[in-house]
From TrEMBL:
Protein origin, superkingdom: Bacteria
Protein name (database record): Alpha/beta hydrolase
Database matches in InterPro entries: AB_hydrolase_1, AB_hydrolase_fold, AB_hydrolase_sf
Keywords, alphabetical: Hydrolase
Entries under SUPFAM superfamilies matching the protein: alpha/beta-Hydrolases
Gene Ontology molecular function, alphabetical: hydrolase activity
Length: 273
């Protein structure tokens, strides 16, 4: 486990280096960004990360502020703060060229936000059940976080969860409750700066967006494709929000192909396998 100081925060970072031959050119870097509250970088350990590393990508995972093993400040949870963290992390890691960003749920919103803020640092974006930060997104986040904070304060909730799902699941949900109840997250996230349609159109890097057919976000796929000149959307049958877990192999196939397609041709001997 590595702790890196980024944006004044102790950030937990894990890397899976590409399996490449010594002496070849540096491999492409992919940064995997997880979702909000109960999620952490661990979700990628059991899904995409090992396969991407085996395919010749330098894989970077990190815990978002307040989650996993990263520091939990009492405030500073606007989207802009998460973008500052990611920027500072990239400054510290100093990858060789623009990175490919893969974001699940809120992680995709962060990925899209960085592509809008600093297009030169991003080679491609892959969104898994995610959306850009818009006014509608902000309103939805306000409602969801308020509802979550109320539900996670319910008497007897954790005893009930332990009986149904065991101590491990309950531990993760307790952590989410502390995040909502001891920080300003529920107020900060909805107060984030958002993009209008012109701001979304300005994102020039290739964007892949994956949605579950049974998810409420699936209605966005046509809208997103209409705004972005280099966008592909895929709706995965029989899936809801947890596409990353429910359709891991297909998700990995699509994202790896997207990264391969949008990585400059490597020098001799430096091949994404």
């Amino acid at each position: 486990m590595a702790m890196i100081d980024a944006n004044g925060l102790a950030v937990h970072v894990e890397r899976m280096p590409a399996r490449t031959t010594a002496g070849t050119a540096p491999p492409p870097t992919v940064v995997l960004i997880h979702g909000m509250l109960i999620d952490s970088l661990v979700s990628y350990y059991f899904t995409l990360a090992p396969r991407f590393a085996a395919a010749g990508l330098d894989v970077v995972m990190y815990d978002l502020r307040g989650q996993g093993h990263s520091q939990r400040p009492p405030d500073g949870y606007r989207l802009e703060d998460y973008l500052d963290d990611l920027e500072a992390l990239l400054d510290r890691l100093d990858p060789p060229g623009p990175v490919h960003l893969v974001g699940n749920s809120y992680g995709g919103t962060i990925a899209f936000g960085l592509a809008a803020r600093h297009p030169g640092r991003v080679a491609s974006v892959s969104l898994i059940e995610s959306e850009p930060p818009t006014g509608a997104w902000s309103r939805k986040m306000a409602a969801n976080l308020a509802r979550g904070a109320e539900e996670l304060a319910r008497d007897g909730l954790f005893e009930e969860l332990t009986g149904k799902h065991g101590k491990h699941v309950t531990k993760r949900i307790r952590s989410a409750a502390r995040l909502l109840h001891t920080t300003t997250m529920a107020r900060d996230v909805p107060a984030s700066r958002v993009l209008d349609e012109d701001g979304i159109r300005a994102v020039g890097c290739p964007v892949l967006a994956l949605y579950g057919a049974e998810s409420e976000l699936a209605v966005q796929e046509g809208w997103l494709r209409s705004l972005l000149p280099h966008c592909r959307t895929v709706v995965v049958p029989d899936q809801e929000h947890w596409v990353l877990v429910g359709a891991t192999e297909l998700t990995g196939d699509l994202i790896l192909d997207w990264i391969r397609t949008h990585t400059p041709a490597p020098a001799a001997g430096d091949v994404i396998r």
